[in-house]
Amino acid sequence: MPRAALLAAIVCLLVPAPASAAARKVPQGWLGVVADGPLTAPGFAASEWDLLATSGAESVRTAFYWRDIQPAGPAGADFSRTDPVVLAAAQRGLSVLPVVQGTPVWAAQNPGDLASPPKDPKHLAQILTALVTRYGPKGSFWSLHPELPPRPVRDWQIWNEPNLTRYWNVAPWAPPYVTLLKAAHAALKAADPGSRTVLAGLPNESWLALRELYEQGAGGAFDVVALHPYTGRPANVIRLIRYARREMRPRGDARMPVWVTELSWPAAVGKTRTTAGFETTDRGQAKRLTSGLALLAKERRALRIGRVYWYTWLSAEASTPSSFDYSGLRRLRAGRVVTAPALAAFRHAARRLEGCAKRRGNAARCR
Fold this sequence. Notes:
Layout: H1 3-14, E1 31-34, H2 46-53, E2 59-65, H3 66-69, H4 83-91, E3 95-101, H5 121-135, H6 140-144, E4 155-158, H7 174-191, E5 196-198, H8 206-215, E6 225-227, H9 234-248, E7 258-263, H10 282-298, H11 300-303, E8 305-310, E9 314-316, E10 330-333, E11 336-339, H12 342-353
Parallel strand pairs: 1-2, 1-8, 2-3, 3-4, 4-5, 6-7, 7-8, 9-10
Antiparallel strand pairs: 10-11
């Protein structure tokens, strides 16, 4: 069998055919996971991607670090860190949401600080144009891989949590972020008119951060609002989305989708001294994941919740003092990968959302 045909056959085996549109409770791609940490390290086992793709995730959100793509200057681009992630996702029928972040030293307002924003928004606009040329419609990446059905990237998230100094070290944060967002939005629409600009995920008092962005003139410079509703109770996730909706409606964005680009309850109780207030146990993580996804699916239409990404697929336990070391559905522990109890909960929730829970004799279609 020719190599291209063999790979196509593998793709068909790995990616279950979707249940009928009438049976599904959510659209294709609604439920995803964040792909970061060990999963995106060079040479990590491909079998981990296989498990991800057969566990219910239909999309992945992943960081595209600008400093890795253009480490030395604006001329040229090195896609050696991003190509493997896009390839792994495409081989398994997963859509990709890149988060473009991480200013290179040469473009930084504060060189040497990893949280520095760029000093000139035009440099981010230029790299976004290059990324669309690589991964968007008619992108060169797809020409390099004719064995795959093209899955062009059409959604681009601009930065991560800029209202936190960990990711954006200039205060006040909103005015320069809005300037950057406008430049990014214009560049994306010029390179791909069908693209969508996804607002950076906003954590903590996210509705107040969203209000600041509107007050600084961000309206019209994004197509999707993104939230990171980290909170102890699943019901409060819905409350935070409602708060965001209250900010959006009077600005004419009542019909704009909201994406939860990070959702998690780290199973870090008793495992780290650093706490954020929403940690739980392994059992609690599985329980809250089940409840949270059910609530989000129930409110999907009323609140226009367009996507949900669990943070994260694979985390490395005790690699940092962060509770998020224990957020993964799979975890790297003492050199080996173990499965968290929450993975079974994720799989069960995915089956229900795909309309598979009560269907019999459908093993080929339901995980």
